[in-house]
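Worked example 2:
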Amino acid sequence: MATSSQGLFTTASKTDGKYMYNFSTVPLLSELAKLIVSFLMLYRQFQRDPHGTNITLDWKNSRLYPIPSLIYLFHNNIQFLTLKYVDPSTYQILGNLKIVTTGILFRVFLKRKLTKLQWWALVLLMVGATVSQISGCHGSTFTAPIEGYALGLVSASLSAMAGVYTEFLMKQNDDSLYWQNVQLYSFGVLFNAIALTVDDINHNFANGFWPHYMFHGYTWIVWCVVINLAFTGLLVSWIMKFADTIVKVYSTSMAMLVTMLISAWLFGMQPNLQLLLGILTASASLNLYYMNPLDLLPEREVYSKECKDVVVELSLEEKKNPDD
């Protein structure tokens, strides 16, 4: 629901189809909000259980935390470069490649083995997400220069890499989630502030220094965008710590479809066949990914396999205890 709300809040924050505020300040304020919440939660946890709150102060560990922020910084720049070569509809479709690239990096870097059924489920999810978006393409899709597709693949890979690396970072030790978030979001605030400063320098400070115009054009709905983005980020960190990147992929993809459905209701758009097919395909993919492979076998074969497993276990026990 948090991810679904983000697109709706962002759309509602426009005035006459334009952003009346500097949308580059939203990620900075979001990172700052997440940092403050994480610090307060860490302080509360430490006060309640100082011995059970694991905090690693080794620099060799802390130096790993700027990497996700750097990956996202490169990813954002690649996004702008990609949109120079492809139209928004094609860009959205290319963005679905991150579903499969996440599965590949999940296998390569985290050494998590996926079954054939799970691989097919991820492919099905990518197809479902693509089908739901292809309605906005009027014959111009896939006619862009090769550079656009190459950059789209790089963008999808960077997005997947950021997610997989963050999961690795969160699970590398037993540190408190709030302490890990404090380190992660500290660098997020730093890099976003640097990005705003560089942008001001490139424009010769035409609007002044960013702290002076930071809240210009902000309304209550813009603050909803900031708060919801921060809340979503905190939820994602929890998913990375206690679940995995694939759960995030599914939640993001399903949220996209839910957003499209709610948008059709709120903004008077008619749900089309592509959207309905996308939702059904993504739902089937979710069911396949978490399905027990034994559920695909006929009931008689399942019992047969279970009996064989019991026989093997008994034979192994007899070999260990031949005198019994």
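Residues 313 and 319 are 10 Å apart (CA to CA). The two ends are 59 Å apart (CA to CA).
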